[in-house]
């Protein structure tokens, strides 16, 4: 499975996580009982489907190996396996966070991603 996984998160929510020292998820994560992540190959479609036109977002890269057995890959969109974390995200597993701006075409502009 992918070593590096990605989370799209509003910058304001991420600042709260940094202050708390842990990220326990966005409202959709709370509703579903796990924190949703995407692989490098999935994250642009995730942005288009669930964050279309939204500004003020960050892309957070996470070392999936650091999450242990609480990270589970489960079928979702079209049967594709998506990483789901059944625990809070320790900030020690975060590799980096970068702005996810909208481009002139209205789509999010991603930095170079590692699988």
TrEMBL record:
Coiled coil (UniProt feature): none
InterPro entries per record: DUF952
Pfam family, any one: DUF952
Record's protein name: DUF952 domain-containing protein
Organism: Shinella pollutisoli
Taxonomic lineage of the native organism: Bacteria, Pseudomonadati, Pseudomonadota, Alphaproteobacteria, Hyphomicrobiales
